[in-house]
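Bench notes, afternoon.
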Amino acid sequence: MIPNDKRFWFAVAAVLLATWTAASVTAGVPTEQIRSTVDRAILVLKDPRLKPAAKTKERRDQLKQILFARFDFTEMAKRALGANWRSRTPKEQAEFVQLFTELLESAYADIIESYSEDKIVYVGERLDGSYADVASKVLASNGAEYSLNYKAHLVNSEWRVYDVIAENISVVNNFRSQFNRVITKSSYEELVRRLREKAEFGSPKR
């Protein structure tokens, strides 16, 4: 139930860890906040003290704290579950957010440490009140380019990401389609069971 397309995961991972390259368009507040997050993540990845295998857990814990603080997992989970969200109790919603967050963390765990040499060029930013769309391009080390847009909304003074569009594939829409298929063919309880077991949610193939 995790997309296996290499380009999709390549682009999604790159937005988190790539070195940002200045473009001709002036970056706005949403981009600047994400730039700060990425810079801190890169410092963790380059820290010699955290490079040994024995430090893997500590390194990943630090990356999670930095990178996933920029994501609004509650909003992502809500959108991914779609209309089914409203029929769940507050307790069920809280559990689903937790399971969804663990799903994404598991999927990104290996990937976010793999693509630190690529660059992202900021190409545009559109603000609509408390919502922002940021467009960029991933410049891979092999010369390939990938489009990458992400959507954020303002929560207090922080721009929190609630969807990533990698090569025209929405993370939220992708999960929503897969979740809906399970619920339609079986039940919400079956979806939760699968999420708990994580049998189908290993790291995506590359």
